TrEMBL record:
Domain remarks: A pair of annexin repeats may form one binding site for calcium and phospholipid.
Protein family per UniProt: Belongs to the annexin family.
GO MF, one annotated term: phosphatidylserine binding
Protein name per its UniProtKB record: Annexin
Domain of life, source organism: Eukaryota
Organism: Malus baccata (Siberian crab apple)
The keyword Calcium is annotated on this UniProt entry: yes
Amino acid sequence: MELSKALEDELSGDFLRAMLLWTPHPAERDAWLANEALILKDNSGHRHYLLVPLVSAYRYEGAEVDMTLVNPEATILHEKISEKAYNHEEIIRILTTRSKAQLNATLQHYNDQFGHPINKDLKKNPKDEYLRLLRASIKCLTCSEKYFEKALRLSMKGLGTTEETLTRVIVTRAEVDMKKIMEQYQLKNGVSLAQDIKGDTSGDYLATLLSLIDHHA
């Protein structure tokens, strides 16, 4: 609290927000961001059924895959999505408890068996906010660098910059998977992430963002 107060007394704007996000322990920071999101947006209804287990369920993080689960769980996902039971407990269970490696194997089998990726089946109602949340969760869980590359790209697209998104992604992923995100950004956009940040920000805020990504370059 004393450090936060000192920062607030000395800094302002986007630079202040970046520093306030960077200084806490990652777990404390994630809890603060989650609480902020819950305050700003109504997360009742179907969204609640997905978001709560996403942040609270135990998830094995190893590389081992149980191949005996791949076919039955891909089939369950397809059946429930075909029934439009998007918030079915089995969908929630699979997405919120399976490891990244297990989910990738299951969703690859889904693609192979049913002829298209799962997110295509979840786009049948593009304006449905819960389906958007499902698609984003799947993308983030299985290929986080693509999810965060898109978030960064959209934050700097067109006139103006969405500094809140830019700050949040750079700060929270700096010590997680920033190298992969930067590689994906270069591949997708033909320019480096650093180059686009330099074109859209300035001053101490720019220097802070660059310092967080420079050691991955």
